Amino acid sequence: MVRTVPSEVIDAALQIIDMAKAELDCELNPNVVLTLADHLQFAVERLKDGCVIENPLSDTVEFVYPVEHGLGLPASLSLRGRPGFPCRGPRLAPSPCT
């Protein structure tokens, strides 16, 4: 099934990928734009529906990929306040957004 991903989500994915490229100093697979945009859109839909999914492997991922995992918080924070994104999420501290 092909899902429609809003341009705001694609723009956010591109911004996060640029952050990752700068931090990791490497080339990423060109398909990562579509993969990340799809991931973000699905997360937005879940949050809007009030569905929070905890990742039981989060500690393992952080241990095995500490640099990559460390990019998650700045990436999450970069989404706050952007059109189409909830003001809060499971990885974000409470915000003053309404």
For the record, give the distance between the C-alpha atoms at the N and C termini, rounded to a whole number: 33 Å
Number of DSSP helices? 5
Q: Which runs of at least 5 residues are low in confidence (pLDDT < 50)?
A: 92-98
Shape: globular
Let me know the average pLDDT.
Answer: 81
Number of strands: 0
Radius of gyration: 14 Å
Q: Structural class of the helix and strand makeup? A: mainly alpha
The sequence of SSEs as H and E is: HHHHH
Helix percent reads: 55-70%
Strand content: under 5%
* Largest sheet entry: none
Characterise the protein shown here.
- Helix content is 56%, strand content 0%.
- With 98 residues, it is mostly helical.
- The protein starts with 6 loop residues before the first helix and ends in a 19-residue tail after the last helix.
- The C terminus is likely disordered.
Fold blueprint:
Blueprint: H1 7-24, H2 32-48, H3 58-64, H4 66-70, H5 72-79
Summarize this structure as a short list of keywords or feature phrases.
disordered C terminus, globular, 98 residues, mainly alpha, 5 helices
Give a brief outline of the structure.
With 98 residues, the protein is an all-alpha fold. It is built from five helices and no strands. The longest helix is centred in the N-terminal third of the chain and has 18 residues, at 7-24.
